[in-house]
Amino acid sequence: MIKHDPDDTIAAISTPVGEGGIGIVRLSGAGSLCIADKIFAGCDKAKPSEFKSYTVHYGWIAKGDEAIDEVILTVMRAPRSYTKEDVVEINCHGGIVALRRVLGLVIESGARLAEPGEFTKRAFSNGRIDLAQAEAVLDMIRAKTDAALKISAGQLKGALSKEINKARQAILDALSNLEVAIDFPEEDIKPDDLNKIKDGLIRSRAILHKILEGARFGRVSREGIHAVICGRPNVGKSSLLNALLKQERSIVTHIAGTTRDTIEEIIDIRGVPVKIVDTAGILEPRDLVEKKAVERSKKQIIQADLVIIMFDGSRKLNGQDETLIRKIGKKTAIAVINKIDLKQKIEVPRLIMKFARVIELSASKGRNIDLLEDAIVNLAYGGKISAIEPALVSNLRHITALREAEILIAQAATSVDNKLSLEFIAQDTKDGLRYLDDLLGRSFSEELLDKIFNDFCIGK
User: Fold this and answer.
1) Chain centroid to CA 77: how far?
2) Would you call 332 helix, strand, or coil by DSSP?
3) Which residues pair with 69 in a beta bridge?
4) What gap in Å lies between CA 277 and CA 168, rounded to an integer?
5) Buried b / exposed e across 427-453, counting CB within 10 Å, b at 16+?
6) Residue 287 Ramachandran class (φ > 0 left, ψ -120 to 50 alpha, else beta)
7) Which whole-number Å values give the CA distances from 422 to 182, 192, 195, 426, in the listed order?
8) Beta partners for 56?
9) Are 208 and 409 in contact (CB under 8 A)?
């Protein structure tokens, strides 16, 4: 990434490309109001640099005598803005031509085009948010369910950072007592002092452990799971996909082998984003197309977090069913007996012996679909259903840092019990603290910042 002057005034289109009712060109930096003065013509002839903060004004963006667009201009003065700098937002008509003309005029007037995520990066650099909160901004944009949005919003408000800072303070308490003991080696450390050190370490570890306990819920809500529907031909896989989607997505016929390729959809099941894949039921391909479909189905099963294996309840188990059961192996799986609205012939006890969860339903009639949804959510959360809390951790970088910190703090506490060298204990404690500081952005490298903010869109 090119290194720019942090005092530059930056600008970008902050709304998605394409036609829309409104499009926004955003500016941030010391020159924002000056640039706005050059290009904005308000009805009252007043200049944006004269406007009060948090005020909205109607007018035109113009280049000389040429009117470019009728706009609403908003002024947010430093430090009470998203970036803690002077910010101007120009609400234009949503056509891409108008937006590009306005942005081009802004750049001609002294701004430069913002890098990906640079507005949020400035919010971090200027101390309005920490690094964990900055990453929550991207998570909010990418949220696929209400649950994921709630977690991201809580992180952006600082709920997770607050808990991490509690752990951090407990580590600092232990570290301060350690430093005193190390600085005065001539005085024997008292049992009470050792207890204070250990108490700080235990309190910190308990907080970190509690945060990590919710990591599975957070990651599932954020990233979802990959579920694959498989089964021999004509057991009702496409009907099940349609029932879960609550719309006709797959073609359903009585002809075996209708689905000749994998069909993927993302659905929200009780707040869990599920990428659900309907696979071809063909086991013995008749041509090259079917051979490729079978290969894709096998690959999907290997990659899946959860396999939903379907059986036709109106028929007895056969060799194809047994082959599929063997192929699934030890994958996490739910057995679904379909067509319960018909006379049942399937050997249910055999399936109960093979699978921990067996659900009987009718995909075409929509019966017991809710039981399958419950089972999917339960397995996604590892058998533990928990209310979504705003302090949940969902980001892999955060989870890794927290785990490393917990391990080091646990080692330090054990070293206190074993009466090891204070310098040894202090080193583990400092290393644990460093992981938390990296997480929050109290210490960081430019390489890390570039990696994080490059994932953002330009304009955020």
Assistant:
1) 31
2) coil
3) 61
4) 43
5) bbbebbbbbbbbbbbeeeeeeebeebb
6) beta
7) 7, 15, 13, 6
8) 74
9) yes
Q: Are 284 and 269 in contact (CB under 8 A)?
A: no
- pLDDT at residue 379, as a whole number: 84
Question: Could you tell me the two tokens for 337?
Answer: 């007996």
> What are the residues whose beta carbons fall under 8 Å from the beta carbon of 381, sequence distance 6 or more?
216, 217, 220, 272
**Helix residue ranges per DSSP H, 16-145:** 32-39, 96-108, 118-125, 131-142
pLDDT at 287: 55
pLDDT of residue 195: 85
Whole-angstrom Cα distance, residue 27 to residue 335?
55
**CA-CA distance, 332 to 376, in Å (whole number)?**
10
Distances (CA, A) of 272 to 161, 381, 382, 420, 427: 24, 9, 13, 46, 41
Name the residue ranges covered by the structural domains of the chain: 10-129, 134-214+392-441, 227-380
- Amino acid code (one letter) for 241: L
How far is residue 278's CA from residue 296's CA, in Å, rounded to a whole number? 11
Helix (H, G, I), strand (E, B) or coil at 183: helix
**pLDDT of res. 260:** 46
> HSE-up of 356 (CA within 13 Å, CB side)?
11
The DSSP output letter for 116 is B
Question: What DSSP designation does 280 have?
Answer: P
Question: Are 10-129 and 134-214+392-441 the same fold in CATH?
Answer: no
What Rg value do the Cα atoms of the chain yield, rounded? 29
Tell me the per-residue pLDDT of 356-385, one tens digit each, with 9 for 90 and over. Answer: 899 999 999 999 999 999 999 888 877 555
Is domain 134-214+392-441 classified as CATH 1.20.120.430?
yes
Q: Where are the beta strands (DSSP E) in 114-243?
A: 225-230
CATH dotted code for 227-380: 3.40.50.300
401-416: pLDDT as tens digits? 999 999 999 999 999 9
Q: At what angle do helices 96-108 and 32-39 cross, to 10 degrees?
A: 120
CA distance 187 to 189: 6
d(CA 120, CA 139): 13
Residue in 267, 280, 179, 168 with CA at minimum distance from that of residue 225: 267
- Highest CATH level, class, for 10-129: alpha beta
Among positive and negative, which fits the CA dihedral 235, 241, 244, 249?
negative
Give pLDDT, residue 246. 82
Q: What distance in Å separates the CA atoms of residue 325 and residue 293, rounded to the nearest whole number? A: 19
Weakly modelled stretches of the chain, pLDDT under 70: 1-2, 185-191, 247-262, 281-291, 293-294, 383-390
Location of structure tokens 């709304």: 15
